[in-house]
Amino acid sequence: MWWLVRSLSRLFRRLAWWQQVGLVVLAPLVSLNLAVAFFGSSVVSPVSPFFLAEKWGALVAYAKHRPRCLLSGHPDAQGLAAQAERRYRLPKGLMQAVVAVESEGHAHRISAAGAMGPAQLMPGTAAMLGVKDAFDSKEAIEGGAKYLNQLLERTGDVQLAIASYNAGPGAVKGAVPRNGETEYYVARVMRRFAPARD
Question: What is the DSSP secondary structure assignment for residue 173, as one 8-state letter?
Answer without folding.
Answer: S
